[in-house]
Amino acid sequence: MKQKFVGELDKIIRGKHIKTVFQPIVSLRNGEVYGYEALSRVTCPTDLTNPEDLFRAARTCNRLWKLDQLCRSAALQSFRDKQAFSGDSKLFLNVSPIIISHEQFSLSFTRHYLKQYGLEPNRIVFEITERNSISDIEKFKAAIDHSKSEQFQIAIDDAGAMYSGLNLINAIHPHYIKLDRRLIHDIDLGGLNFALIKGMTEFCRLSNIHLIAEGIETESELTILIDLGVPYAQGFFLRKPDEQLKAVDDDIRVLIIDCHKRKNNVFGSPSANSYISNICTQSEIVSRDTKVEDIYNKLKANPDAFGFCVVENGHVIGIITKSHLTLQLSGQFGFSLYQNQPVSLLMDTEFIAVDYQTPINEVSKAAMSRPQEKLYDFIVVTKDDKYLGTVTIKNLLQKTTEIEVVKAKYENPLTGLPGNLVIEQKIRMCLSEKKTFGILYLDINHFKEYNDIYGFENGDCVIKLLADILVLHLPPGQFVGHVGGDDFVAILDDKDLKGYCDAVSSEFQRKVLHYYNPSDKANGYIIAENRWGVIERFSLITTSVAGIRVQSRDFASVPDLTEKLAQLKKKCKKLKDDNYLLIQT
Questions:
Q1: If both were cysteines, with which of 77, 171, 218, 400 could 364 make a disulfide (CB 3.0 to 4.6 Å apart)?
Q2: Rounded to whole angstroms, how far apart are CA atoms 471 and 485?
Q3: If 0-12 CB within 10 Å is exposed, 13-18 middle and 19+ buried, where does residue 149 land?
Q4: CA atoms within 13 A on the CB side of 392
Q5: What are 396-405's pLDDT values in tens digits?
C-alpha cells in the first residue's frame, strides 16, 4: 500500500496536479472579508483526493516537503494572479510543525521570496495544522519566534482538538486561534460548547489574540457567535471554497450588520460613542528605518509625546514608547550603541492593536490584563487592519469610567439591558410621536418555583437566557428593556409583534431545558411548595407575553399604558393553552 501511495504522490508532484481554492475568513463586525484560507485540491484521478489523506500519505512516504512546496507555490501564484480582487486581505497558508521547523523553510520563505508574488510578510499567516504532537517543542518555538521576527503571523488551527490545546497556545502566543468546527456544531443549543467558546472569547480578548470560528453551517450558529463577541468566522454558510477570491453575499453581510444593530440597541440605534474610535487620535508615525537618535530627539523636543507607531505600507509593525526607549538607552554605552541604528531594532512587536469598532470596555479589559511592564503602553487602533490612530491609557480609563457610570444609571446589572428609567423614556417618546406601535410585557411562568428548587444562580442564568433570546430576535431599530427580576418590556413596530412572540417563546422553551436535571426534564414538571406552603406539581418554565397594539391617542400618559399592561399580564397568566395574549386598543 505504501508503494502505491509513493507512485500516486510522485505523479501528483511531478505533474503539479494541485490547484488552490480560497475560503474567505469574514469579519463578524461588518461582514467584510478579512482574509482567505488557501486550500489545496488534487486535479488528477487518485485515491488521495481527501486533503488529510494526501498529507498523511506524504508524511509516511517522505514526500511532505515536496508536496508542501508545490501547494504553497500554487497558492501564492493563484493569489498573486487575483491580487486585484484581494485588497489588503491576509492569506492563511496551512503549514505543519515539521515543515515550519525545517531549516530550509526559514531560508527559503523570506521577504525577498514574497516580492515575486507582490506580498509583504504581514499579510501571510502560517496556519499550524498538524494533528500530531510536536516532537521538539524548543525547535518548534524557535521557528515560530523567527517567523514572528520577520513579520509573519501565526495561527493555531483546530483549537480544542487533539494537540492544538492550551499548552501549545501558551507556548507560542499565536496571533490567531481557529476554533475546531466540532465546537461550533449546535452551539445554538446552549450546551457545554457554548460555555467553552464564551470562555475562549474572553481569553482571546484579554490576550490580544484574534479568534476565528470554523465550520459555520447555519444562521443560528452565526448569530450566537456574533452575540458572544467572536470577531471572525468561516464556513459553508458564509461562503464555500472557490477558485476565485469571493466576498460574502449581500444578504449575509446585511444579516451580520443587523445582528449588531440588535445587540447594541438601546433607543433603536447602536451607541457609537462606546467604540474605541470615539477616543482615538492621530499621532506621529515613523518608518522602520528611522534612526534611534532621531526618535530620541523627537521625544526630547516634545515632553508630552508618549511614543510612536512604526508603520510600513499602512500597517503597524511595532511601537516605540518613551519608557521603553529610555530603558534601552540607559547605561554607560546605551546611547552610543544604538543612536545610529534603525528603530526597528528596538521597537516592540508585541503590542495591542484593536479594530476601530471594538467596544471601549473590551479594549480596557485587554489593556489591564497586560504584564506590569506594559500596563501603561498606548493602544494602537486600526481600520481594515491599517493604522488609524492611538489611545492613551489615561483617555481609555477616563472614558471607561464615564461609560460605567452611565451603565450603572441606565442599565440592568444582570442583563445589561436598558432599565426602568430608559424604558419609561422610550414609552413616553413613542406616545409623543402620535403613532401606532406594539408593546410587550414578558415574564417567566413558574420562575419562583424553579428558583426555589434550583437556586438563584441557575435562576439568573435562565433570566439571562431570556434576555439573550429577546435581543437575538429583535428586529433592527426596535427596543427591549429589563424591568427587573424576570420581567421584560419590548417595543416594536405593530407588524412585528406576533412573529417576535412566536420566535422568542419557541426558542426559550427549547433552550431552557438545558437548565433542568434529567429526571425533571423527563417528567415534564418539578415538585415544589406553592405560595401557601403546600407541595404542588409545577410545569416546566415558559414565557408569558402580554401585548398591546397601541394607538397613542388612547393613552394620556405612561402610567395609563403600564397599568393596562399589568392588567393584561394578570389575564395572560391565567391562560392554559396560549402563552401570549395580544389585544388591539
A1: 400
A2: 17
A3: exposed
A4: 13
A5: 998 888 877 7
